[in-house]
Amino acid sequence: MSTTETSRDTLIPVFDVRVTREDLEAVAETLRSGWLTMGPRTYEFELAFAEAIGARHAVAVSSCTAALHLAYLATGVGPGDEVIVPSFTMVATAAAVIHAGGTPVFADIVSPARPVIDPDHVETLIGDRTKAVVAMHFGGYAADIERLAEICRDRGVVLLEDAAHAPLATVSGRCLGTWGLAGTFSFFSNKVLCAGEGGLLATDDEGIAEFARLRRSHAMTIVSWDRLLGESGSYDVPALGFNYRIDEPRTTLLLSRLRRLEAEIEQRRAITDRYRRLLDGSPGLIVPFSDDQVRGSSCYVMSIMVDDDLLRAPLRQALRDRHGIQTSVFYPAIHHLSAYRSRFPGIELPQTERAAATQITLPLFPHLTEAQQDRVVEALRTELAR
Amino acid sequence: MSWTVPLTEVELSEADIAAFLRCLEEGWLTMGPRTQAFEQALADLCGLPYAVAVSSGTAALHLALRGAGLTSGDEVLVPALTFVGAAAAVRHCGATPVLVESCGPEDLNMDPEDAARRAGPRTRAVLATHWMGYSCDLEALDRLCRERGLQMIEDCAQSITARTADGRMTGTVGVAGCFSFFSKKQLCVGEGGMIVTADEELAARARLLRSHALTSQTWDRHLGHADSYDVVDVGFNLRIDEPRAALGLSRIERLHEDIEVRRALVRRYRELLGGVPGVSIPWSEEAVERSSHFGFTILLESRQERDRLVSELVERGIQTTHYPAITTLSDYSEHPSCPRAEDLAARQLVLPLASSFELETIELVARSIVELVATPV
Question: CATH code for A261-384?
Fold first, then answer.
């Protein structure tokens, strides 16, 4: 089949990172300066990011997992404490609870059409040992954050946000990641704002910010940049810290890309709107979230859920092999992963299980062309009709 | 402030910068072919079959210890005179660091006899640290490990390519060697680290834990080798990324040359400061030839004298540093003291050193030291 050959030559990846001339120039300047460890560029990026989302403090770290770990520790999560997390998320949301010494408790999502943590289920899970609830904004779409904030306030537990997918996403005009006591962000290579590896903790709370700043660099009371500025005394280490530092080349790249982020998210929204129009009413699949929610979303992931879970694997294979279209799966349910099934047996979360068995992530990046998008939709239609 | 002589400096070549930018331009940023090539380059350098690149030297120690099976309830012998990250990495495994004395002013590294005294029934491993790039007494520590059934993990954060007294490369004697590519290091990329080992199982465990114990990685899925993944342990995100691997790969080509420059500068320091009353210089001429010279360190007669020199040198625009003994840090106040290591730490002064420095820079610093010790207040 000749189209097969053509398709393979022009594979449409699920994500595609484009670094611009300005990005490269900024990074080159940092590399030439010879100062690579956290310093002025990191602090400048932190200020810019905090301002962009309307948070008082931003602490850049090595990854979103690191940010989550620090957020849990700063909240006081330790042995005996429970943290309610969705199971329909990247495994790090739960793993970092265990790193902090706590126990993750898995809540279901509302439904495959609304794959974010279910506030009703959260309410039934809150108990004496619950320290925090994590709202994870799947794909860049807000969890029911206003309701969750109310529940957490009423029950006296901390609300945290895993905003790995959701920089600049909003609800009621307020950025995600600023509703909870702390919000965590990811700059992993396929994210809307990416630098390879990186993360950030945002908070309005001075104490949480201080905690994260100290612990990200081994809880040393003086860091290298202070020394360059003339600090010559000895440092102390008052607590157990980590090397969760980011470095200057990455924060330079992030700062340069942050300037384009709003525009790139607008492009993602337009592409998402178009996907939704083209896929509307397609038999055999659900497109999660509503058209209205696209506006406030960062549109990180374009999800579809197939009606028949047995169809997913052959469909993805056909998209790849016959049409040259890469897809991925976000995410296997955490409570079904071997390491978690053995530690937390017997958990049943029907909506999560349904979503995890049927979700497919379609190609989405700011420079995805209409022609490419048409190819994806056409291929989907063809394969679903088989 | 702007230093006349900073503690160290990093000079990236145009080739280094081009390698980094090319990687960004190609747009694949998460671990992939460049990380694999960087791992292979370090494995080759050490003559070992496995290397696992990670996010930092601390991460390398953490995952090497986990890879060697260390867990809560275990104890690990750690020198009191080293960077606090080493003790932290032991604690990240749930294990307890047991802090050990230094040999003395001739050799600041871990004292094997004191290590033997402090080892107890729960001790499972030794972190053999090569401070400032000078190998510790690996023969004696190796003997101790054999006698007591301990595992030796080498902390080579400062000692890349340094050799032991019997000519072996540091990092190749223990079950694993752990490197740091922090921005002050001989081979630097900003933040980064690596584990090298001959133990296939240790390497596999470290590899799994560095990326959330996922059974397939983004790169595998990009290549179409895997569709989804399972998670078989509670892992971490301790990954490096492609731009940093590209930089490491570019810089490793000049590593031997850079270290020879450092050695020549250290020889000059020793010529100018050897025999100066009030200044003593650890390690022997023979050790200088085997070291990879992360830093050049001298010992003053007292803490007061050291602190006085630090301030006077600041006045002259010369940046120095010193490391507190771990036993003197607030978070370690419950640990039994190590008086010898604490005394050495209090008198230690690390002087400027970089492969981009000229001999004149070293001479300027050394002359300042000579003048300052000769004119006490």
Answer: 3.90.1150.10
